[in-house]
Protein backbone atom coordinates (compact mmCIF):
# COMPACT_ATOMS: atom_id res chain seq x y z
CA UNK A 1 0.00 0.00 0.00
CA UNK A 2 2.83 2.38 0.84
CA UNK A 3 4.58 1.71 -2.47
CA UNK A 4 1.36 2.24 -4.42
CA UNK A 5 0.62 5.55 -2.72
CA UNK A 6 4.20 6.69 -3.40
CA UNK A 7 3.84 5.92 -7.11
CA UNK A 8 0.55 7.80 -7.24
CA UNK A 9 2.07 10.87 -5.58
CA UNK A 10 4.98 10.79 -8.07
CA UNK A 11 2.56 10.50 -10.96
CA UNK A 12 0.60 13.52 -9.72
CA UNK A 13 3.65 15.75 -9.64
CA UNK A 14 3.73 18.47 -12.35
CA UNK A 15 7.10 17.23 -13.58
CA UNK A 16 5.65 13.88 -14.59
CA UNK A 17 3.25 15.39 -17.14
CA UNK A 18 5.96 17.64 -18.55
CA UNK A 19 8.40 14.74 -18.86
CA UNK A 20 5.76 12.60 -20.55
CA UNK A 21 5.00 15.40 -23.03
CA UNK A 22 8.69 15.96 -23.84
CA UNK A 23 9.28 12.27 -24.43
CA UNK A 24 6.16 12.06 -26.59
CA UNK A 25 7.37 14.95 -28.75
CA UNK A 26 10.79 13.34 -29.08
CA UNK A 27 9.29 10.00 -30.10
CA UNK A 28 7.04 11.63 -32.71
CA UNK A 29 9.93 13.70 -34.04
CA UNK A 30 12.17 10.65 -34.26
CA UNK A 31 9.45 8.73 -36.10
CA UNK A 32 9.07 11.52 -38.66
CA UNK A 33 12.85 11.66 -39.11
CA UNK A 34 13.30 7.91 -39.56
CA UNK A 35 10.22 7.31 -41.74
CA UNK A 36 11.74 8.60 -45.07
CA UNK A 37 14.70 6.26 -44.65
CA UNK A 38 12.38 3.36 -43.80
CA UNK A 39 10.13 4.10 -46.78
CA UNK A 40 13.19 4.21 -49.05
CA UNK A 41 14.06 0.70 -47.83
CA UNK A 42 10.46 -0.46 -48.41
CA UNK A 43 10.49 0.81 -52.02
CA UNK A 44 13.91 -0.79 -52.57
CA UNK A 45 12.31 -4.16 -51.83
CA UNK A 46 9.49 -3.67 -54.37
CA UNK A 47 9.25 -3.62 -58.16
CA UNK A 48 9.41 -0.43 -60.24
CA UNK A 49 5.75 0.38 -59.65
CA UNK A 50 5.98 0.17 -55.86
CA UNK A 51 6.61 3.90 -55.46
CA UNK A 52 3.27 4.73 -57.14
CA UNK A 53 1.12 2.32 -55.16
CA UNK A 54 -2.01 3.80 -53.53
CA UNK A 55 -2.20 3.62 -50.57
CA UNK A 56 1.57 3.82 -50.01
CA UNK A 57 3.30 0.55 -49.23
CA UNK A 58 4.60 0.32 -45.68
CA UNK A 59 5.86 -3.26 -45.44
CA UNK A 60 9.06 -4.62 -47.05
CA UNK A 61 9.00 -7.29 -49.74
CA UNK A 62 11.65 -9.73 -51.01
CA UNK A 63 13.05 -8.03 -54.13
CA UNK A 64 15.88 -6.03 -52.60
CA UNK A 65 18.64 -8.33 -53.85
CA UNK A 66 17.20 -8.45 -57.38
CA UNK A 67 16.87 -4.66 -57.49
CA UNK A 68 20.41 -4.14 -56.24
CA UNK A 69 21.79 -6.60 -58.81
CA UNK A 70 20.20 -4.52 -61.56
CA UNK A 71 21.79 -1.40 -60.06
CA UNK A 72 25.20 -3.11 -60.21
CA UNK A 73 24.60 -3.88 -63.89
CA UNK A 74 23.77 -0.25 -64.67
CA UNK A 75 26.69 1.35 -62.80
CA UNK A 76 30.07 0.57 -61.30
CA UNK A 77 28.60 0.95 -57.85
CA UNK A 78 31.32 -0.44 -55.58
CA UNK A 79 34.13 1.31 -57.47
CA UNK A 80 32.28 4.62 -57.10
CA UNK A 81 31.70 3.81 -53.42
CA UNK A 82 35.43 3.33 -52.98
CA UNK A 83 36.15 6.62 -54.76
CA UNK A 84 33.78 8.44 -52.42
CA UNK A 85 35.40 6.79 -49.41
CA UNK A 86 38.88 7.87 -50.54
CA UNK A 87 37.80 11.46 -51.20
CA UNK A 88 35.65 11.80 -48.07
CA UNK A 89 38.26 10.36 -45.71
CA UNK A 90 41.05 12.46 -47.24
CA UNK A 91 39.03 15.68 -47.09
CA UNK A 92 37.85 14.99 -43.54
CA UNK A 93 41.36 14.27 -42.28
CA UNK A 94 42.81 17.41 -43.90
CA UNK A 95 39.95 19.63 -42.70
CA UNK A 96 40.36 18.37 -39.12
CA UNK A 97 44.09 18.99 -39.16
CA UNK A 98 44.26 22.38 -40.88
CA UNK A 99 41.07 23.87 -39.42
CA UNK A 100 42.06 22.80 -35.91
CA UNK A 101 45.51 24.33 -36.36
CA UNK A 102 44.07 27.57 -37.73
CA UNK A 103 41.38 27.71 -35.03
CA UNK A 104 44.00 27.14 -32.35
CA UNK A 105 46.15 29.95 -33.74
CA UNK A 106 43.23 32.40 -33.89
CA UNK A 107 42.10 31.46 -30.38
CA UNK A 108 45.38 31.33 -28.43
CA UNK A 109 47.99 33.37 -30.28
CA UNK A 110 48.41 37.09 -30.68
CA UNK A 111 49.76 38.24 -34.03
CA UNK A 112 49.50 41.17 -36.38
CA UNK A 113 46.23 41.58 -38.33
CA UNK A 114 44.67 38.73 -36.33
CA UNK A 115 41.19 40.28 -36.15
CA UNK A 116 41.01 41.45 -39.80
CA UNK A 117 42.19 38.03 -40.98
CA UNK A 118 39.57 36.27 -38.90
CA UNK A 119 36.81 38.56 -40.21
CA UNK A 120 38.07 37.90 -43.74
CA UNK A 121 37.76 34.16 -43.13
CA UNK A 122 34.24 34.61 -41.75
CA UNK A 123 33.37 36.80 -44.73
CA UNK A 124 33.98 33.95 -47.13
CA UNK A 125 31.00 32.16 -45.56
CA UNK A 126 28.73 34.78 -47.14
CA UNK A 127 29.99 34.04 -50.67
CA UNK A 128 27.79 31.48 -52.48
CA UNK A 129 29.68 28.33 -53.41
CA UNK A 130 28.54 28.60 -57.03
CA UNK A 131 30.48 31.86 -57.48
CA UNK A 132 33.75 30.05 -56.83
CA UNK A 133 33.15 27.21 -59.27
CA UNK A 134 34.51 28.96 -62.37
CA UNK A 135 37.79 30.31 -60.90
CA UNK A 136 38.39 27.03 -59.07
CA UNK A 137 37.79 25.08 -62.28
CA UNK A 138 40.24 27.33 -64.15
CA UNK A 139 42.89 26.72 -61.48
CA UNK A 140 42.31 22.96 -61.63
CA UNK A 141 42.62 23.08 -65.42
CA UNK A 142 45.87 25.09 -65.24
CA UNK A 143 47.27 22.50 -62.83
CA UNK A 144 46.00 19.69 -65.09
CA UNK A 145 44.04 18.20 -62.21
CA UNK A 146 40.73 17.83 -64.05
CA UNK A 147 39.33 14.30 -63.68
CA UNK A 148 41.62 13.44 -60.78
CA UNK A 149 41.19 12.93 -57.05
CA UNK A 150 43.26 16.07 -56.43
CA UNK A 151 40.54 18.25 -57.97
CA UNK A 152 38.10 16.91 -55.39
CA UNK A 153 40.40 16.87 -52.35
CA UNK A 154 42.70 19.91 -52.54
CA UNK A 155 40.04 22.69 -52.86
CA UNK A 156 38.19 21.23 -49.86
CA UNK A 157 41.18 20.71 -47.55
CA UNK A 158 40.22 23.68 -45.36
CA UNK A 159 37.04 25.71 -44.98
CA UNK A 160 35.90 28.81 -43.14
CA UNK A 161 33.22 27.08 -41.09
CA UNK A 162 35.75 24.61 -39.72
CA UNK A 163 38.11 27.39 -38.67
CA UNK A 164 35.28 29.35 -37.04
CA UNK A 165 33.92 26.27 -35.25
CA UNK A 166 37.29 25.19 -33.86
CA UNK A 167 38.28 28.74 -32.89
CA UNK A 168 35.11 29.22 -30.86
CA UNK A 169 35.43 25.85 -29.14
CA UNK A 170 39.14 26.20 -28.36
CA UNK A 171 38.63 29.70 -26.92
CA UNK A 172 36.40 28.32 -24.19
CA UNK A 173 37.70 24.77 -23.74
CA UNK A 174 41.49 25.16 -23.77
CA UNK A 175 42.59 27.31 -20.85
CA UNK A 176 45.60 29.56 -21.23
CA UNK A 177 47.04 28.20 -17.98
CA UNK A 178 47.45 24.77 -19.60
CA UNK A 179 49.39 26.29 -22.48
CA UNK A 180 51.59 28.29 -20.12
CA UNK A 181 52.29 25.15 -18.08
CA UNK A 182 53.33 23.34 -21.24
CA UNK A 183 55.72 26.16 -22.15
CA UNK A 184 57.24 26.08 -18.68
CA UNK A 185 57.85 22.35 -19.12
CA UNK A 186 59.76 23.10 -22.32
CA UNK A 187 57.16 21.99 -24.88
CA UNK A 188 57.21 23.52 -28.34
CA UNK A 189 54.20 25.05 -30.06
CA UNK A 190 53.17 21.94 -31.95
CA UNK A 191 53.69 19.64 -28.97
CA UNK A 192 51.48 21.86 -26.82
CA UNK A 193 48.86 21.78 -29.55
CA UNK A 194 49.06 18.00 -30.04
CA UNK A 195 49.44 16.83 -26.42
CA UNK A 196 47.41 19.46 -24.56
CA UNK A 197 44.85 21.04 -26.88
CA UNK A 198 43.82 18.10 -29.07
CA UNK A 199 42.74 15.77 -26.21
CA UNK A 200 40.53 18.55 -24.83
CA UNK A 201 38.83 19.42 -28.13
CA UNK A 202 38.11 15.87 -29.32
CA UNK A 203 34.29 16.39 -29.20
CA UNK A 204 34.52 19.46 -31.42
CA UNK A 205 36.79 17.62 -33.86
CA UNK A 206 34.35 14.69 -34.01
CA UNK A 207 31.47 17.06 -34.74
CA UNK A 208 33.41 18.84 -37.48
CA UNK A 209 34.56 15.49 -38.88
CA UNK A 210 31.01 14.16 -39.15
CA UNK A 211 29.74 17.33 -40.84
CA UNK A 212 32.66 17.31 -43.27
CA UNK A 213 32.34 13.62 -44.10
CA UNK A 214 28.59 13.91 -44.72
CA UNK A 215 28.93 17.01 -46.91
CA UNK A 216 31.78 15.52 -48.95
CA UNK A 217 30.05 12.18 -49.39
CA UNK A 218 26.82 13.85 -50.52
CA UNK A 219 28.49 16.43 -52.77
CA UNK A 220 27.17 16.13 -56.31
CA UNK A 221 27.75 19.45 -58.07
CA UNK A 222 31.54 19.82 -57.91
CA UNK A 223 32.33 16.17 -58.82
CA UNK A 224 29.92 16.52 -61.75
CA UNK A 225 31.89 19.56 -62.96
CA UNK A 226 35.46 18.22 -62.72
CA UNK A 227 35.03 14.47 -63.32
CA UNK A 228 34.82 13.28 -66.91
CA UNK A 229 36.02 9.67 -66.71
CA UNK A 230 33.78 7.11 -65.03
CA UNK A 231 36.87 5.61 -63.39
CA UNK A 232 36.88 8.50 -60.90
CA UNK A 233 33.11 8.90 -60.45
CA UNK A 234 31.92 9.27 -56.88
CA UNK A 235 28.85 7.49 -55.57
CA UNK A 236 26.56 10.46 -56.19
CA UNK A 237 27.52 10.53 -59.88
CA UNK A 238 27.05 6.77 -60.07
CA UNK A 239 23.56 7.09 -58.59
CA UNK A 240 22.72 9.80 -61.12
CA UNK A 241 23.51 7.33 -63.92
CA UNK A 242 20.61 5.16 -62.73
CA UNK A 243 18.20 7.92 -63.79
CA UNK A 244 19.34 7.71 -67.44
CA UNK A 245 18.26 4.14 -68.24
CA UNK A 246 16.34 3.73 -71.48
CA UNK A 247 13.49 1.50 -70.29
CA UNK A 248 12.09 4.01 -67.78
CA UNK A 249 12.85 4.80 -64.18
CA UNK A 250 13.11 1.76 -61.96
CA UNK A 251 12.55 3.21 -58.50
CA UNK A 252 13.10 -0.13 -56.81
CA UNK A 253 16.58 -0.32 -58.35
CA UNK A 254 17.32 3.35 -57.60
CA UNK A 255 16.19 3.11 -53.99
CA UNK A 256 18.16 -0.08 -53.37
CA UNK A 257 21.37 1.58 -54.58
CA UNK A 258 20.58 4.75 -52.62
CA UNK A 259 19.97 2.70 -49.47
CA UNK A 260 23.33 0.96 -49.82
CA UNK A 261 25.06 4.30 -50.47
CA UNK A 262 23.54 5.72 -47.27
CA UNK A 263 24.71 2.92 -44.99
CA UNK A 264 28.33 4.22 -44.69
CA UNK A 265 26.97 7.55 -43.46
CA UNK A 266 24.93 5.80 -40.77
CA UNK A 267 27.95 3.77 -39.70
CA UNK A 268 30.13 6.89 -39.40
CA UNK A 269 27.48 8.72 -37.40
CA UNK A 270 26.90 5.79 -35.03
CA UNK A 271 30.63 5.40 -34.42
CA UNK A 272 31.14 9.05 -33.52
CA UNK A 273 27.68 10.00 -32.22
CA UNK A 274 28.80 10.20 -28.59
CA UNK A 275 31.48 12.81 -29.38
CA UNK A 276 29.15 14.51 -31.85
CA UNK A 277 26.45 15.08 -29.21
CA UNK A 278 29.05 16.15 -26.65
CA UNK A 279 30.47 18.70 -29.09
CA UNK A 280 27.06 20.20 -29.89
CA UNK A 281 25.90 20.42 -26.28
CA UNK A 282 29.18 21.45 -24.62
CA UNK A 283 28.13 25.08 -24.40
CA UNK A 284 24.56 24.42 -23.29
CA UNK A 285 25.39 23.93 -19.58
CA UNK A 286 27.66 26.17 -17.57
CA UNK A 287 30.19 24.39 -15.40
UniProtKB/TrEMBL annotation:
GO (cellular component) term, any one: plasma membrane
GO process annotations (BP): transmembrane transport
Residues of the ABC transmembrane type-1 domain: 81-272
Topology of the protein relative to the lipid bilayer: Multi-pass membrane protein
Name of the featured protein: Cellobiose transport system permease protein
Transmembrane segments: 20-41, 85-106, 118-140, 152-171, 192-214, 251-272
InterPro entries membership: MetI-like (IPR000515), MetI-like_sf (IPR035906)
Keyword hit for Amino-acid biosynthesis: no
Cellular compartments annotated: Cell membrane
Pfam families: BPD_transp_1
Annotated organism of origin: Paenibacillus methanolicus
Family: Belongs to the binding-protein-dependent transport system permease family.
Superkingdom classification of source: Bacteria
Record key words, sorted: Cell membrane, Membrane, Transmembrane, Transmembrane helix, Transport
